[in-house]
Amino acid sequence: MRYELAIAAHDFPNTGGWLQNVKEGDVVMVRPAMGIVGTKELHDFLWLTVDLLPHEVEGLMSDERDLTGQPVPGGLKRVFAIPFTTLKTRMSSFESIKARDTRVVYQPFVTINKGHLTPVADMDFAGLVVNRKLGMVRSV
Amino acid sequence: MGSPWRTGLNESVSQLGPGLDYTSVNLWEAAVQGNHTAAGDSTTHVLEVQAHASDQAWTISGSINDADHPMIIRGHVAHRHHGIPGPGFAGFANTTVTHAIWLADSFVFIQGLVVSHAVNSAGNMHAIRIETGGDHAQIVDMLIANVVNTGTGTSRGISNSGANLIVVNTLLHNNQNIGFYNLNINSSLLCNVTATGNNQGGITNAGSGSVIAINCLATGNTGSQFGGTFAAGSTENVSSDATAPGTNPVINASVGYVDALNDNFHLTEADRAAIGTGADLSTDPTFPFDRDIDRATILTWYPGFDSINAPRLFTQADIQHVLRLPIIPEVVGASSGGSGGSVIRRRRRY
């Protein structure tokens, strides 16, 4: 099943909140493919499409939890991320400097036309996502 | 006092829906996350939802809000529901394996949405999960229905561990587990909540905190209609068993609703006669309001989310939404101020 992922294109500033804000590469949003994107969602987020099974989606937007399952104050807003270095291995033309530049719309993994999103190609989920807390690739 | 939809100071409003600012609550939330208090950016961030199924699985965490500067997610005026759950109105049907709405920030207000939830998980994944730290949340005019977890876990309508939660004019129907479940040691206030057809209980306080239920109507739930202990101040509640708490309870009530088979849980005249009148909350010291689920002004209060038996007054925006007809502006005359300006009135093109 095709899902849309939006990952942070840059570090967002922390403001002393209960959790940190998102960091570059964090999986901020995952949803079944809708094929639409908002006008304010193009500068700060990179959009990808991935073929996933429902159980592979579970926890992808998780924050940092302690052993009892409670959120950790000051912890990570997102545990799972897709490093730009990984994106570069999937698309050699990927330019991380452009991705971080919020003045331009840079969406190399999808085509955007009048608010409609079309995938260039679905990414292979295997090896794509890392667990920031464990420092290792998420197994599917 | 009027609407229970509270607002904030210095609102910055974004729109959610196809072709609009955002299509994802989570992306809006990440973009506006910050210190929103007077000591911060002093802004109330508002997201108006203009579509159904426009997002999946919201997480609201990491901002600093206060009573004057909450974060608000509300149904857009032209897309608000009419008191009957279903697609076509502001809201969404979650299928992502997590809670449909997960709140960990304080002062988050969610208003006027339809939420359903279908997941397959070994974990407990609820329609609305309020974590410890998600204090002072307000759940108002919400229709939370058809919440299912086909895995070994379960799903409740609202599962609360936050302090000072307020739930008003809200329907909890056909949730796989309990409609409303309080786990916290702190206080919750439930006003005019209708809980019916939930599969392991209607409204339950499983914690040691203070839960006040006023004008709440729980019928036809499997298990107890009201479970646990309810605090002083609870009054005018109705149950189809003997569990309605507080003063002036109506127990063993028979309530049929207008069309329960089709999820219409408005009250019939016979229902009103069976349950009696409710407490007037228009001057309530904690959360005064005088509108029911249909946004009609309440003249006589009844338990449950529907106090007005007169047909609701549709706004032009409602009609435009239902009929999906274009509205065009029309200049109809000079303004009375004589400044040369014109009065713009909206006219329907047939």
Structural class of chain B: mainly beta
* Sheet of most strands of chain B: 8 strands, parallel
Give the ordered list of helices and strands of chain A: EEEHEHHEEEE
Beta-strand residue percentage of chain A? 15-25%
Radius of gyration of chain B: 20 Å
Give the averaged pLDDT of chain B, no decimals.
Answer: 88
Distance between the termini of chain B: 38 Å
SS element count, helices of chain A: 3
Entry keywords:
heterodimer; A: 140 residues; alpha+beta; 3-stranded antiparallel β-sheet; 3 helices; B: 350 residues; mainly beta; 2 domains; 8-stranded parallel β-sheet; 7-stranded parallel β-sheet; 24 strands
Can you describe this structure in just a few lines?
The complex is a heterodimer of chains A (140) and B (350). Chain A contains three helices and eight strands.
Descriptive notes:
The complex is a heterodimer of chains A (140) and B (350). Chain A has helices at residues 54-57, 84-90, 96-100; strands at residues 2-8, 27-32, 45-51, 80-81, 110-113, 116-119, 130-131, 136-137. The radius of gyration of chain A is 15 Å and the shape is globular. The longest helix of chain A is centred in the middle third of the chain and has 7 residues, at 84-90. The mean pLDDT of chain A is 91. By secondary structure, chain A is α+β, with helices and mostly antiparallel strands. Chain A has one domain (2-137). Chain B has 2 domains: 11-311; 314-350, no CATH class. Helix content of chain B is 7%, strand content 29%. Chain B has 3 helices and 24 strands. Chain B has helices spanning 25-32, 269-275, 316-323; strands at 11-16, 44-49, 58-60, 71-75, 91-94, 101-103, 108-111, 114-119, 128-130, 138-140, 143-149, 158-160, 165-168, 171-175, 180-182, 188-191, 194-196, 203-205, 211-214, 217-219, 226-228, 238-239, 327-334, 342-348. Chain B has an 8-stranded parallel sheet with strand order 1-2-4-7-10-13-16-19, covered by helices on one side. In chain B, strand 23 and strand 24 (342-348) form a beta hairpin. Chain B starts with 10 loop residues before the first strand and ends with a strand. At the A-B interface, strand 2 and helix 1 of A face helix 1 of B.
